[in-house]
Amino acid sequence: MGRRPWPVPELASVGALAEHLGVGHGDLAWLADARGLERSVVDEQLRHYRYGWLARPGGSPRVIERPKARLKEVQRRILHEVLDWIPAHDAAHGFTRGRSARTHAAAHVGRPMVIRLDLEDFFASVSAGRIFGIFRTAGYPEPVAHALTALTTNAVPVSEWAAVPRPATPTLVRAHDRLGRRLATPHLPQGAPTSPALANLAAFRLDRRLAGFAAALDATYTRYADDLTLSGGRSLLGQANGIRATISGIAREEGFLVNDRKSMLATRAGRQRVCGIVVNDRLNVERDEYDDLKAILHNAARRGPGGENRAGVPDFRAHLLGRIAWVESLNPARGAKLRDRFARIAWDE
Asked: Which residues contact 99 (CB under 8 A, 6 or more apart)?
């Protein structure tokens, strides 16, 4: 072990890592995919991940890589016994204990200018080399850092990527091809329990540089996953193009790419949103979202909840209570009105 800046477990060898994770040496090599089978084998039983994709409006499909049970359990141990000890930057609000989309948005309430940018393919952009660097910085010797990196990164099989629909729009085709290149090499898989924490750590230098840049502008910077937000006074309006160009340049230098199609600049004259939360004067839910939920509760009280569960949510009652709690956390008065409507619904026991 080298110098440990954080109190991570002392694992001086791959054998010690296997023992700490509760697996045999052969099993560790298998789970770490030492032979590189994941990328090439056709037999799904020989893989450690299951794959799928989700359509995204105005974007290329999102590829989901779900680790199978055994690898997932090992990744959870790495998350809680190693990564939980390594702090993210103070500007990171996603996937961080005590912070959330609400705290991210709260940092930008009542600001004359809000500038939002989005990072393209956040998890897939983080390469195995960067993850290896994180584990080395934590103090682990090279063999252990290599093993931890292999356990937490993945390369998508050729056949699985070939099954992902290719968009027709030229700009989206280019983004699709970039994603394919990222997924073809070891990267953070979207679906692994370790990926959010490792992505935050990989973005530490990005957060530090953008927080310093914002401070020089007398502005505030925070990040929630791939959502970068900077807010400040009216003087930012005249500098907006330069600010976005500087942020894009810093992101590129740190291994990320800003998705220009999702950048947004808003003054208080319009609706300012951060992670879907309105921040003009106070934290608030969007009016359309509130009205939609209010209508569902009204109709469920009149005609019964069954007809309002159009998406077939397994526990519709808990689903509605969760949505009400979210509104209540942003606007207690609106939340109280929704709870009153919810109380009128007759639920079949």
From this structure: 92, 93
Q: Consecutive 10-residue runs of the chain (349 residues): their mean pLDDT?
A: 92 96 94 86 88 83 94 97 97 94 96 95 96 97 97 95 88 90 96 97 98 97 97 93 96 94 88 94 94 95 90 92 95 95 88
Q: Report the pLDDT value the prediction gives residue 57, as an integer from 0 to 100.
A: 75
Number of neighbours of residue 316 by Cβ within 10 angstroms: 18
pTM for the whole structure: 0.91
Per-residue pLDDT at 153: 97
Distance CA 240, CA 16 (A): 52
Q: How far apart are CA 191 and CA 197, in angstroms?
A: 12
Cα 338 to chain centroid, rounded: 29
The pLDDT, as a whole number, for residue 168 is 82
CA–CA separation, 251 and 256 (whole Å): 5
Q: Give, in degrees to the nearest 5, the angle at Cα 130 between 126 and 131.
A: 90
- Helix axis angle, 240-253 to 204-216, nearest 10°: 160
- Using a 10 angstrom Cβ sphere, with 0-12 exposed, 13-18 middle and 19 or more buried, the burial of residue 279 is buried
The partner residues of 153 in beta bridges, in order of sequence, read none
Annotate 233-290 with DSSP letters as a single string: -THHHHTHHHHHHHHHHHHHHTT--EEEEEEEEEETTS--EETTEE-SSS-EE-HHHH
Predicted confidence at residue 44, as pLDDT, reads: 84
Distance between CA 196 and CA 198 in Å, rounded?
Answer: 6
Inter-residue contact 307 to 299 (CB < 8 Å): yes
CB distance 313 to 323 below 8 Å:
no
Please identify which residue in the block is written with the tokens 């969007």.
286
- Buried/exposed code over 95-120 (b: 16+ C-beta within 10 A; e: otherwise): bbeebbbbebbbbbbebbbbbbbbbb
d(CA 54, CA 327): 26
